[in-house]
């Protein structure tokens, strides 16, 4: 358990331990590596007006940029796409200065070169999860260019190439769910979300409609066992169903039924264990899902009890384990799977009025 005073927490030994650990951390990615920790220090420095944390974030960002050539992964979770989106996020927030397209040009070129290499197929470079992540990256980058520009056309062509892979090799692995909640282990919601987003761009809609037709019967016969995964699936379906005109009525009925079968009490009291507080596997992730659902659907039956979620995090034994069990700290020091992301969520909770 930690003190509910955020300043007490954020000045704790955890930050010192984190700075010591990342000296020997070879990973640069946004989920588990230095890019994610860089975002953590930049954001907390910004929120708290803490110059040391801002300078720490800047130092880490320079380290990440200096070692870009050594990063062979392309995905968001561990690779170049995630680093690019992290940098883009910091520029968009006004925390660092720069022209997004100029700053990301080298990363874009590397991704284009690797994915257009005729010696290797897309499937030999990206697995199911990474294909979804790459579609997110391309979707976001398309929004940074005018439609008439060469860069927009290049990104559009790459998107079509990857959608073709998705359509030709539609995999039932997207339906698989693990026995415990993890945003990493259940791919269907993210697939549906990104397909819905791409449909709004009106790029290659015929092919995506074909994928929707293929997926719909599988979705309608699929009901996640964990209520946390039902919540995650509902999030993915909201974006997807807004544009999936061919199957809209069937999916709307399914979503209505699914929403009624989500029990937040069960998620918090049974499915999530005491130490499950992080974005990737716990309470912080549930908070984000509910917040995103609120934005998608104003009259959602799923209510967000911020104080309950906040207290659940603050009273967790995970904080004691982070301070006293080195193996636990090493596993949970990243932005998505560790305390930095959860600390950011706690700060955001503290700024939100009680509901």
Strand portion = under 5%
Q: What ranges have pLDDT less than 50 throughout 5 or more consecutive residues?
A: none
- Percent of residues in helices: 55-70%
Reported for the largest beta sheet, the result is: none
Strand tally is 0
Rg computed from alpha carbons, rounded to a whole number of angstroms:
20 Å
User: Number of helix segments?
Assistant: 20
| Overall spatial form | globular
Structural class: mainly alpha
Round the mean pLDDT to the nearest integer and report it: 90
| Element-level helix/strand string | HHHHHHHHHHHHHHHHHHHH
Termini separation: 24 Å
Task: Summarize this entry quickly.
The chain is an all-alpha fold. It has 20 helices and no strands.
Describe this structure in words.
Helix content is 64%, strand content 0%. With 355 residues, it is mainly α. Helix 9 (128-142) runs antiparallel to helix 10, helix 13 packs antiparallel against helix 14 and helix 13 (227-243) runs parallel beside helix 16. It has helices at 6-10, 13-21, 34-48, 51-66, 80-92, 100-103, 105-115, 122-125, 128-142, 150-168, 188-201, 205-220, 227-243, 248-260, 264-271, 283-296, 306-314, 318-324, 326-331, 339-350. It comes from Dysgonomonas capnocytophagoides.
